[in-house]
Design brief:
The chain is an alpha/beta fold. It has 2 domains: about 270 residues, Aldehyde Dehydrogenase, Chain A, domain 1, CATH 3.40.605.10; about 200 residues, Aldehyde Dehydrogenase, Chain A, domain 2. About 35% of the residues lie in helices and about 20% in strands. A 7-stranded mixed sheet has the order 15-16-17-14-13-18-19, sandwiched between helices. The protein is globular, with a radius of gyration of 23 Å. Belongs to the aldehyde dehydrogenase family.
């Protein structure tokens, strides 16, 4: 039976509104391939309205005492906690991320993040004092940018919405969120829940196509800062589109992360770390930090391949709303075509298939319309293959053998990306050398994919720059007083 259609609206100036011209986009449940919701297909008029609302609200919000903003952010955290199950189910239905992740991990984590942001408001108003001479005092003050545009991806909408909106609001900015059209229902539902919590215009949410609503927002001179989590290609497009206004940019972009297993590692922990904690995840490897290049030292090569094969074989691909499911579908038809295209590329390039490669109804016969790709592993000795160099964003990994530390480092850094890396070893000296020498924004040692509030998260090279934190949403002003 087809799912009933839910209609969602934008949040602009404290009001829930359809797109100005009434257009909508379908939201498709990736587990079934069926339309389950409709979202506004916003355009330039909606972007203009959101910017106007955010600019009108900014003076009052930024002038509010920091502790007053903190109290409202704690109320937002309460909304997350009170509506966790509903929001988790919406996100799972919208993008296929399994319910045990959205309900047990994402929502509790984001409730905590909003509480953390509320505690960070004092940092946003702190400055430094410098005695310049007996009669001269210098000091700095931190000020919000103004209107912050947060552009968020489809793989984890609630989490990235929170990371951008919570810290930007704590710093005294007003915010416009542009979610990805493939999966934004959970964020639009949040807009409904928060409409009466925050003052009108302080938070605005506008859905629509990137080339329409997104482009209009990026180019708008009333937007003072842009923070994007998305692809490298999107980051490049935003850089070009925003260049005339010289907007400050924060980009958390793509990755092709190495996950390096040394012979002295705890192989049980490493096997979990390179599979279910990395690339065979609840949302089918659609993770920017996915360790999709598994580097294995030759003495433990065969043993690790066997362990990885056994773990992948034990995964359950089924309805993502079932708490027993351990991996969900690919988010959309377009992304499914991209991932399956890389399976063809791997075969043509000569990579050796270890397991997987199955797609569609053959993976989950009970849900034949879904966008299913089985966990897949290839092996190669050639890191120059496209499947080793390009971000696939699906449950597809390539294992590469190495002999020495120097070889592992060279393979790891032989990438245009630099978002994250994993190192599995009992050698403390080696761990510190790799932390130092890996060209990566984050290095995990004997763990993977831990991103706690309080530590920066961002990349180098084509993986972007900057990170979401309260001070990143402020700018410093210097003052000198001569008495």
């Amino acid at each position: 039976m087809a799912e009933s259609i839910t209609e969602y609206r934008n949040l602009i100036g404290g009001r829930l509104v359809a797109a100005a011209d009434g257009r909508t986009l379908d939201s498709v449940n990736p587990a079934t391939g069926e339309t389950w919701a409709r979202i506004p297909a916003s355009g330039r008029a909606d972007a203009e309205a959101a910017v106007a609302a955010a600019r009108e609200a900014f003076p009052r919000w930024s002038a509010m005492p920091a502790l007053g903003r903190a109290a409202l952010l704690r109320k937002v955290a309460e909304v997350f906690a009170a509506n966790a199950e509903e929001l988790a189910r919406i996100e799972t239905r919208d993008n296929g991320r399994i319910l045990r992740d959205t309900l047990k991990r994402d929502l509790p984590g984001m409730t905590y993040l909003w509480q953390i942001a509320a505690g960070d408001v004092i940092d946003a108003v702190k400055g430094d004092t410098v005695i310049l001479g007996p009669d001269t005092l210098g000091f700095t003050r931190r000020e919000p940018y103004g209107v912050v545009l947060g552009i968020i991806p489809w793989n984890s909408p609630i989490s990235t919405f929170s990371a951008k909106a919570a810290y930007a609001l704590a710093a005294g900015n007003t915010v416009i969120i542009k979610p990805a059209e493939q999966a934004c229902a959970s964020v639009l539902r949040l807009g409904e829940l928060l409409a009466g919590v925050l003052p009108p215009g302080v938070l605005n949410i506008v859905s629509g196509l990137g080339e329409e609503a997104g482009d209009a927002l990026v180019r708008h001179r009333g937007v003072n800062k842009i923070s994007l989590t998305g692809s490298t290609q999107t980051g490049q497009a935003i850089t070009r589109a925003s260049a005339d206004a010289l907007k400050p940019l924060t980009f958390e972009l793509g990755g092709k992360s190495p996950n390096i297993v040394f012979a002295d590692a705890d192989l049980d922990a490493a096997a979990q770390g390179v599979t279910v904690n990395s690339v065979y995840t609840g949302n089918a490897g659609q993770v920017c930090v996915a360790g999709s290049r598994i580097l294995i030292q030759r003495p433990v090569w065969q043993e690790m391949i066997e362990r990885v094969t056994a773990i992948a074989g034990g995964l359950t691909l089924a309805d993502p709303l079932d708490l027993a499911t351990t991996m969900g579908p690919i988010v959309s038809a377009g992304q499914y075509e991209r991932v399956t295209g890389y399976l063809e590329i791997a075969e043509k390039e000569g990579a050796e298939l270890v397991f997987g490669g199955t797609t569609g109804a053959a993976v989950v016969p009970s849900m034949p319309g879904g966008y299913w790709v089985a966990p897949t592993l290839y092996t190669t000795t050639d890191n120059s293959l496209r499947v080793c160099q390009e971000e696939i964003f699906g449950p597809v990994a390539v294992a590469i053998p190495f002999d020495t530390d120097a070889e592992a480092l060279a393979i790891s850094n032989d990438s245009s990306y630099g978002l994250a890396a994993g190192v599995w070893t009992r050698d403390l000296g080696r761990a510190h050398r790799f932390i130092r020498d890996l060209q990566s924004g984050t290095v995990w040692v004997n763990t993977f994919r831990q991103m706690p509030p309080g530590l920066p998260f961002g990349g180098v090279k084509d993986s972007g720059y900057g990170h979401d934190a309260v001070l990143a949403y402020t700018r410093e002003k210097a003052a000198i007083i001569q008495t």
